[in-house]
Structures are given as C-alpha cells and as structure tokens.
C-alpha cells in the first residue's frame, strides 16, 4: 500500500496519521479517511475526473521547508496545494481550501457551515470551493463582473450566503430573483440595506397608493363620516382599484428587482473604493479587520438607524395624510 505519511485527506484536509483507515478514489487516486469518503458519498475531486488526471502527492520535504519558512514569517502553508498564505487568512488564496479557520470569526464560520449545509445539503467546502447550485462553486478570488467574491462578501456582511449566489447569476446578466422581505416591506428593506434613493421612492409610492384604502378603512370605521358619500362615487371606486393594483405592483417590482439593484449598488461602490486604492489585498479574508476591508464593509452592510428612520417617516407621513383628509 502506498505511503500517505505527510499527505492530507482531500475532504477534511487533516494530515493522515499512522493507523488511519485510508481509502482512495478508484478513478483518480485521491486519498480519504474512510469515514470522510462515506460522508462525501464518493470522490469530490471532480475536476480531476473531468480532465482525466490523477491525484498528485505533495512533496512533503518541500512542504516542510515551506512550513518552517512560514513559521518564521508568520504565514500559513495550505496543506492541499502548498501555497503560502498570510497567517491570518482562513482560506487559501490559490485553491480556496480552509487553512486557518480559528483566525476567522467563530460566528461567521458557524454561519457558513450551517447555512451552506441547509442550502445545498453538501459538505462544507466541497472540492475546495463553496458549493452553489449543485456543481457551481466559487472562492474568495472568483471574479464577479470586475470585483471578487471576497469583496462582495465583505460588502454584504452577515447575510452573504444569501446574496453571493445571486450575485453570481447577476454577473451573467440574469437580473431576476425574488426577495420576500423587499416584497413585504419594500421601503423598510431598502433603507435597511442603505439603498436610500430606492427607499425614498418606495416610501412615497407606498403612501400615495395606500391613500384610497386608508380613507376607505377610516370611513368604514366611522372616523370620517363627512366623507362617507365618496364610497358610492364611481370615480373613487376606480381610483381605489387602480391604487390597489399599483400598491401591489410596486411591491412585486421591489421583490423581483431588489437583489439586482443591491448588486448594482455593491458593484458601483466597491469599484469606487478600488479606484481610491482601498482594494482587498490578495489572500485577505473579508472577515479580517484591516483598513482595506473596513472601507468596503463600511460602505455596505445594513443600518438599523436608516430602518428606524424609514419606519418613523412612514408613520408620520401616513398620519399627515389622514389629518389632511379629516380637515
């Protein structure tokens, strides 16, 4: 049996130890712990299968010298491809394999594992990339329309696992997706995601299209008896129907295009930051604190303050509409 001392399991990236139960892929020869192989349901080195190539052992002598050098320079060597990375980087800048996850935020790492498991049902970091849509994968260095996936991840923040797959589709000129939160609370959602122009338009549109239904409700409840005569007016009935249609049409449009509009905003603002020389350094994780990452992170993310402002503004403007109607 071949000697796999110094080599690592393709699935979990852990070095093999004496006495480990090792199995290899009959097609490409990639080595696994038996339990890892069973967990994966087969070999995950599909790229080797497609190219008709075989697994190549890492030169352990060269790797040991690299690791010694890495320790001296505070770097980490990827045990999958041998690439030397920053000691603070949780992922390999070359192949995307996890190399130092304890340096990343624990909650963020758990989110990646949990969300990825729920979304795809596949093991975390299959084939050294994040599985999306079955066979499609990406790493932090994947280019998405001029910006990297890592830059978008830093920009989006906590809910990156939801947005990055959609951003990949948008980069291929597919603009349609559906955001349920934007459909239910359009103006609140846009303000929460710091999309101020869209939020203002949706706030105004929501209030204007809800005026007839608000009047109808207050008249029916007896708060505006002086206006009860308009309920029988054909003009009011037509306005009521049209405004109701526009009310839901606006919500539907927000739900369908909110993610794409957010992608455009992210793409535009990241590009501006990069023009100022504040681009993510190669191999940097978007979870690490640095001036470069913080510039992108500050531009994106969410804002509870904007959310509260939108909620208060909606209540005040709606109240003003009612007061005007009562005069």
Automatic annotation (TrEMBL):
Transmembrane residue ranges: 176-192, 199-219, 239-262, 304-326
Annotated keywords: Membrane, Transmembrane, Transmembrane helix
Pfam families assigned: DUF2628, Prok-RING_1, Zn_Ribbon_1
Ranges for domain Zinc-ribbon: 78-99
Xref: InterPro entries: DUF2628, RING_finger_1_prok, Zinc_ribbon_dom, Znf_FYVE_PHD
Protein's UniProt name: Zinc-ribbon domain-containing protein
Source taxonomy: Bacteria, Bacillati, Bacillota, Clostridia, Eubacteriales
């Amino acid at each position: 049996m071949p000697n796999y001392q110094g080599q690592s399991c393709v699935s979990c990236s852990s070095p093999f130890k004496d006495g480990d139960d090792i199995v290899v892929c009959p097609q490409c020869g990639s080595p696994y712990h038996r339990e890892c192989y069973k967990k994966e349901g087969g070999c995950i080195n599909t790229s080797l299968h497609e190219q008709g190539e075989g697994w190549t052992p890492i030169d352990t002598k060269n790797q040991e010298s690299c690791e010694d050098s890495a320790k001296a320079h505070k770097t980490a060597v990827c045990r999958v491809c041998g690439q030397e990375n920053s000691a603070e980087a949780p992922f390999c800048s070359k192949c995307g394999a996890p190399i130092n996850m304890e340096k990343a935020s624990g909650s963020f790492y758990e989110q990646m594992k949990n969300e990825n498991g729920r979304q795809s049902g596949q093991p975390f970091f299959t084939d050294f990339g994040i599985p999306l849509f079955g066979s499609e994968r990406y790493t932090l260095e994947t280019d998405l329309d001029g910006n990297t996936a890592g830059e978008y991840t830093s920009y989006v923040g906590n809910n990156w696992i939801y947005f990055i797959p959609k951003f990949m589709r948008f980069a291929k000129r597919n603009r349609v997706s559906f955001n349920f939160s934007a459909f239910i609370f359009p103006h609140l959602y846009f303000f929460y995601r710091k999309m101020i122009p869209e939020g203002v338009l949706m706030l105004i549109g929501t209030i204007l299209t809800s005026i007839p239904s608000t009047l109808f409700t207050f008249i029916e409840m007896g708060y505006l008896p002086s206006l009860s005569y308009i309920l029988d007016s054909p003009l009011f009935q037509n306005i009521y129907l049209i405004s109701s249609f526009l009310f839901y049409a606006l919500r539907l449009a927000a739900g369908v295009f909110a993610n794409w509009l957010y992608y455009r905003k992210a793409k535009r603002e990241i590009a501006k930051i990069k023009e100022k020389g504040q681009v993510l350094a190669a191999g940097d994780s978007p979870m690490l604190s640095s001036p470069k990452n913080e510039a992108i992170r500050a531009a994106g993310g969410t804002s509870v303050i904007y959310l509260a402002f939108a909620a208060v503004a909606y209540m005040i403007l709606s109240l003003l509409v009612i007061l005007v109607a009562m005069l």
